Batch of 4 targets.
Target 1
Amino acid sequence: MTQQGAALQNYNNELVKCIEELCAKRDELNQQILQEEEEKVKLQNDIRILTDKLARVNQSLAKKMASRNEFDKTIAETETAYMKVMVVFRVHDRACFSRPSVSLVQCHTVRNC
């Protein structure tokens, strides 16, 4: 039985060695899991921060675009009013200059035309 005892001891030693290797691999894997969990938490925090920042930028853009649209509207209305004024002045100038007795200085005073 000594041969059987030696074989059993050898088998036992191999089994212990395999268990130790598995424990080492498990510990290494566990360390990788912990690192990835830390990275995951960091990334989730970064996503939250970037999502908040994106929301603020979107709000700012919406306000600025609304302001720009108001500027566009005001500019268009002002240009339209200016063109109407220019038409009135052209009609006024033609009327003034069509009268031979009116001088240029008199023409540009509303009371004289």
Target 2
Amino acid sequence: FVIPDDKKIVNDIFIPKHAANGAVEGHKVVVRLTSYPQGRMSAEGEVVKILGHKNDPGVDILSIIHKHGLPLQFPDEVLEHANRISDTISEKDLQGRRDLRDQMIVTIDGEDAKDLDDAVTVTKLANGHYKLGVHIADVSYYVEEGSPIDREAYERGTSVYLV
């Protein structure tokens, strides 16, 4: 039997031995229902994916991702397009922008952040006051409208932070 995380499903789901697909007690799994409950009979299903042992680090996050149907990876087309974006800055890239590369700018994103796009500077002014600079990267500059990255961003709609 599988005990669903979703509290809207009040009964356990029966998994026949032939449909366990290697899952054992304690595994967190994704199940496809093969029959719905009738009378006193439980719903029946088959294990389609083993996320890991329920106590393994990260399995709780994987469970939330699957529960909400969130994408786990980027499509190959998106990754290939991202890898083609140059990591050097040209003179054209600087047009209409202030070049701050000579300043000590420190990221405020955490060590486990996937994107380092928020930062600050602190400068002591001549009058003894301090100036706080807040810097937010313009990542949209590198995303061409209609590109694979743009289409994927549109599909996802927003960032999801689970930790």
Target 3
Amino acid sequence: MDVIEENAAMLSNFEVYSLLTEIQADTTKKQKKTKNQSKGLQNLATITYEAAKYLENTPCKLQTPEIIADFLKALAPFNLTKPEKLQLLNQRPNSPVEIQLLVEESEERLTEDQIQQLLEIISTKLPTDQQDEEQNDDEEEMDATEETVANSVPE
């Protein structure tokens, strides 16, 4: 395999997930057109499926370009490098220890208050699967409560 156009860039999980879903859509169209699939296309389909399946179970599937832009604007005052911002976006640390692992020399560069501010920004600006699950749980509880109330009302 030859590299046609070299472009070194770091991608967020959201960008990778978006790209993989596009590739999957394109390959399914191609598969419908041609029944005889080459080994290369089979391998590509397997890799894209496995990677997309993994990323579907991460909060990146809930992100949008607007959410990411808003998150990056909120990180501006902290003078973080691009790789550090990307790690915070992808990993979503929820403790000071995790931030120390992701931000180089965080003890010298960030105060305890700034670390707490970072954690607050991460928890408020980025969607998580837990928020989605909590909403689903709340809806299920409300449905169950309504059903119980409906069943207990005498006719």
Target 4
Amino acid sequence: GKVEVAAVMKRKHIAETVTTPTSKKAKLELPGDQNDSLQFLLGSTITTKDFFEQYWEKKPLFIPRKNPNYYQRDGNNLISLSMVREYAKDSELEAGLHLNLCRYVNGVRENLFEEGGKVEEEVLWDLFENQGITIQVLHPQQYIDPIWKLNQQLEIYFQSLVGANCYITPPGSQGLGPHHDDIEAFVLQIEGKKRWRVYDPHPIELPSAFSEAEDIGKPLLDIVLEPGDFLYFPRGFIHQAETTEESHSLHLTISTYQKTSWTEIVTIMMNNAIQMAHESNVEYRRGLPLLYSKYMGTNNTQESQVSREEFISKAKTLAQELFSYLNIDEAVDEFFLDFVTNRLPPYGYPQLPDESSSSESEESEEEMQIAETVIPITEDIQDSWKISLKHEDVIRVVQSEAAITVYVSQHNQKCYHMGAIGDPFCIPFPHLCLDAINMIQDSYNNPVKIGDIPLEGEIRNQFIYPMYYTGLLNIEKN
């Protein structure tokens, strides 16, 4: 009979969606797994090991290739001007959601549409062709399959969100002034030429926010990227780019490691420790001393009262005792679940139809999506059968006192990449399933014999069925 899967939460999504164009999608054969994805960007010039040792978070890397077809397969680029034109024809474009339109002239940046403004196709191309406007296409991985495939592989590699923006600039123009970003940037020059100038980080190294820049000094790099060329620079390195007079330029910026620093982990650790200390230790809940404001504060630093010394000593003691409440693994799980929620689904995994074109509820659509990938089991499960994950790196196992929870990214929707809210899809299991779950976690391309799973009888079936009927598992019948 039908197996009911209880307590499987569904993700809530933001309201805005990116309209998927109905045009033909370019086919691009990229490396077969994530281990080749970064090497594909770097090419044969440098190994990934040398890249991380010499350049990652340290300094820019420019790779000229003299190969305009480097980012092509079967005659198609990752993205092209013609693909963007087709997308604009088939979509209702909204500034800030689908694209931004900007130009930088005489030291002044101009944004032509406020966020949420509708952009008509004819107006878009008139601004591009006649008024020097740069088109920044936002999140093309949400609707262009070759970029979806590349970014999904890179997300497995980096274990961090990997975004993309496409910049199309007319001849002799500049879209953005000097600025630094809060991401590790990989620039892929696809069409035309563009002059890039990259400067030392200022005012701080590895910043956590975007900022326009002044007093930039002399560039470290002053180069012209041509089709097939590659440029990497760490977050914080100031840069600006402008097209030559010869032709338009189209480049793709792949980005990662935004807000993926020790600061994020330590912030979660400390917030959780404070909450735990507050709940378990009455000393943190006691009221502050009466009249404390009379002797504490920046205007009272010269005071030498006993009360002030006691206040400082007490505050330092409570702060130091927080270390006994730190749970680093829980903090990492909490941080990583944001990635699970927002990452791309496996390349090619069926996606739900545009919500605006369907009268079905979100729940029934997601159930239909899963059902398309599952063949019902009509016989007793046999020890000789083998099971394996259908897709690589799609589950995250989290332990708590209440249960073992398997969080699932396989059912994510690419139209919500980097913009989902709420909890990811998940399946809870009792603690006795932990060893079995760990076997499944490592089963992609490495099938597990059902007879080897350390569970028996109906308990084993209740372990297998939820993951199978939510589309996670392949079953090989021998």
